[in-house]
Amino acid sequence: MESVAAGRDGIKAVLTTNDEGGRYAWKVMAQTLSYAASLVPQIADDIYAVDEAMKRGTNWKFGPFEMIDALGPKWFADKLAEEGMAVPEFLTKVGNGTFYKVINNKPHYFGTDGQYHKIIRPEGVLLLSDIKIGATPLYETESAALWDIGDGVVCIEFTGKMNAMDSKVFETYGKAIAMISDDKSEYKALVIYNEGTHFSAGANLGLALHAMENKMWPAIEELVLGGQQTYMALKYAPFPVVAAPSGMALGGGCEILLHVDHVQAHAETYTGLVEVGVGLVPGWGGCKEMILRFQQKEREAYAKAGGGKPIWFAPNTTPMGAVRRAFEVIGTAQVAKSAQEAKSIGYFKDTDAVTMNRDRLLYDAKQKALDLAKDYTAPEKVMEIRLPGKSGHVGLNMAVHDMVKAGRATPYDEVVCDHLSFILSGGDEGDWTNPISEDDMLKLEYVEFMKLVRNQGTVDRIDHMLKKGKPLRN
């Protein structure tokens, strides 16, 4: 099949392509779709049930009647007749119409009685696509939009390619923060959600590569600092922020999940800090947040071991415990293969929740946001992060060097991990007796990120990822 045609005009372009692939696709889909149409009402009372069954039960992206609508029912019926195939009675009945249509800003389906009926969503199901019918966004840019989803909750939706993060997304976040923070505002919470195949693939690598090849350093600096400022503004906003991811949430898409009050994740969420694979380090607070999470885990383990009583000779965090764990997770680009695994790795907190049915994800996230808004107090900035400093930096680098010698890591892995270990150990000012702040760690991320984007090895990795879809082992 011609993928270009499929991308331009969808299923109809594929089925009408005059080549071997197009003819094969038509033969298969003509039989499949006409067979589905011939079974109504024999196997189900309505077409909506059939489409939902095929999408939920066999993981089709679109149901058979949705695909017939994409083709045009009249066109499909005429094409079947032209080829001498039986035209299902139900397909004839819809005539020049469509199986789905919007009436009074509500989705309806064509019934076996020849009338249109309103689609009734089950209790607990809330779809952004339904809300958007006939609605106007509160604010919109090329890459994101804000929607009023009711009860004083605003939803930010990413709309760019692969829902990548860019300056326009940050601009929309800024608008949402200002809107909800306004004392006169009716809004009280923010939900981060979209109905794309993936939550977010992170930063736009194509734009990043273009900027790097043309030495547009100020543009990259602006993107890094813009992301840091936005994520910190969300973390410390005077209202609750709930993220509801599904599909991939990688790199910058993962970092946003690390900064919100609560994650209400679809079970099939695949998340991770994968920046080292393209020769970078997390630059929007990912290093900082993983350190804070693993130090908190260590304190909780200490409290449990001591039965809640302090042990006079033991600090509740160790110099290298959290650092070593964060280095392992980020340095090996671990990706959780489910929302539950994201908890075990540390990308999600134990208090974060999982929704099994994606259609219920937005509803669950909204309810959590409303619960948090009842008595919400913004967290306080962390001003004391104790890290090992130079000794920890050297120790981590020695471990990576041994892996390179053993053939388990590449020479450029060692270069990238040197920058990563420098951040995680606290940089030149880091020392167990000299705590640093969140802002200090963000500065470290920014400086080391900007060093790496000037390195040809990183350019090669990003270029290879964009062209081949897999990491370059340089």
Task: Describe what you observe in this structure.
- There is one protein chain.
- This protein is α/β, with parallel strands linked by helices.
- Among the domains are: 3-99, N-(1-d-carboxylethyl)-l-norvaline Dehydrogenase, domain 2 (Orthogonal Bundle); 129-274 and 333-373, 2-enoyl-CoA Hydratase, Chain A, domain 1 (Alpha-Beta Complex).
- It is 49% helix and 11% strand.
- It has helices spanning 3-9, 11-15, 20-38, 47-58, 64-71, 73-82, 89-94, 128-132, 167-181, 205-213, 217-235, 252-259, 286-305, 321-331, 339-345, 361-373, 390-405, 411-424, 438-452, 456-468, and strands at 100-103, 106-110, 116-118, 139-140, 144-148, 153-158, 189-192, 241-243, 247-250, 262-266, 269-272, 335-336, 353-355.
- β1 and β2 form a beta hairpin.
- The model is unreliable at 1-8 (pLDDT under 50).
